[in-house]
Batch of 2 targets.
Target 1
Amino acid sequence: MKKISIVIPAHNEEGNIPLIYQRIKDIFSKIANYRFEIIFVNDGSRDNTQQILEQISQNNEDIKFIEFSRNFGHQHAVKAGMDYSTGNAMISMDADLQHPPELIPELIKKWEEGFDIVHTIRKYPKQISSFKRKTSKLYYRFLTRISDVNLSEGGGSDFRLMDASVVDVVRNMHESDIFLRGLSYWMGFKCVGIHFTACERATGESSYNLKKMMKFAFTGITAFSVKPLYLAAYLGFIFSAIATVGYGTYVIHSFLTGTEISGWASLIMTVVFFGGVQLIILGIMGIYLGKIFNQVKQRPNYIIRSKNF
Ligand code: UDP
Ligand code: MG
């Protein structure tokens, strides 16, 4: 009998854990021939997530849990679950039931057809704020344009199936700023995508505020592209060209008319403008430098406080 590992990161999800467990159990009782294990990764929750996991796993052998020593972030939580998964295939999904468990049989079907990675392509329902829908769409379009990965529209969801051989490849990656959405496209393999409409969060509230979303967005861009670093060179060329033309015009003008163009205001503006541009470029370089710094320290990407296996 083939075994499917389901990896679920959970950060303050006390209300959702019994719900998602029941839904997954129901699904697997309908599709015979598969065993399953669920690996919940408690990513530094401050509510009763841990107590609930300990309780529920006592009566159910198919539930494993990993408790982090603090919050290490959603991506590392998924990575930890993958590191410990033992199934023939692994499915990662959110704890809040935004990823409908009813899609699991379809994911497995595609896998049985021979695909190594089954992505899901998300459509947000109308209830989700249009701000989130629009920024998400724009972001993935931008990321696809400037990086080598092709994150098709709505490809940014961490609901996916990976064959055990692919999980093995990911297990051996130790990126301090891991961005699984990009990696799963970057690795290649035989991939296919299936469409789904995201649901509303069952209980609790989202852990992603605007600031966290921005940071996540930067992580994605800087993990898959060095193009922002070229910005300095491009801008340098453009502004040098403009300055050369401007200076030429000025020389000719004062030669022909015998007058000098005065204007300290325009001078100050130019200085401030270029100061700003230089700071932006320095900031971009700083982001990459920070990533190198974090990677070089080689600290573990997560620390486990307890687990039940
Ligand atoms: N999550 C996590 N660590 C975090 C933030 C989120 O493990 O620091 C989990 C969370 O419990 C959920 C999934 O990641 O299972 C997606 O998070 P959330 O629903 O808050 O994000 P959204 O769906 O609003 O983008
Ligand atoms: Mg969610």
Target 2
Amino acid sequence: MALILDGKAVAAAYKAKIKAKVDALAARNITCGLAILLVGDDAASRIYADRLVKLATGLGVRAVVRHLPADAAEEEVLTLVRELNADGSIHGILPMMPLPPHLAADRVAAALAPDKDVDALHPLNAGLVATGKSRWAPCTPRAVMAILAHYHIDVSGKHAVIIGRSNVVGKPLAHLLLGQNATVTVCHSKTGDLAALTRQADVLIAAAGRPALIGPDMVRPGAVVIDVGINEVNGAVVGDVAYDAVLPVAAAITPVPGGVGAVTTVMVVEAALRNFGDL
Ligand code: NAD
């Protein structure tokens, strides 16, 4: 039976470090501020934003949600981003993705002040991550790496297979794993024989947003399985991995919920604090 990689335990270790940093700042009368930019009424984004506010507030970081209507003009969004860039009480900005389809996510990303760009969306930060020059990769890939590090799972020389090539999860995660000397394969919706590749994985990371995409026949016995997916099925939150069926095959596995997602939110708060030095 697989070892359960408990995201809440990883998050707890980070929360303690964040709290110590927040307290040190409070002693200097400084309060860190995180702004969450929410355009429209995407239910998942709203739930995620509320969870972030609760977490940040509990840790002593001031979190504000700046909400614009779904039909907000691009210039309105860019004006708000510039306002937050200039606001000295805001240290991190997180635009909730996906934006409504009429808005160009790349122009919003490029408008962010690079040093307040919590999810490394700005092209400068994305480029630094791709060249291995930044430790501020997007929060979800950092959460995956934090889970591996917490459980002393060394990826050096291992074959890591990622399913998903998004700019905020799959691609930056590939760079982080390469930085740790893993051999990385990135699969996506046009990959021919997905199972043939996943079965080769020492570390299998699913980030496709497809419930039960990964069944036990797609997992090499003894593999480490990291499930990034968050899907709603009949009112329940599930990942991309058929958890119960894969559990007896894998050596270690993250649950959903309580896995990567629990760590990602903590990474967002940590990233808002980055201008105050390392934790
Ligand atoms: P996305 O839709 O931008 O990208 C999905 C990727 O999966 C694409 O590259 C696509 O080619 C690939 N894909 C889709 N179906 C596939 C299939 N059948 N076979 C192979 N590849 C397939 O999504 P994203 O923003 O990268 O998020 C991916 C998933 O991770 C979603 O479920 C999302 O909710 C979740 N997510 C979780 C966290 C967390 O903290 N746990 C954070 C961000 C995203």
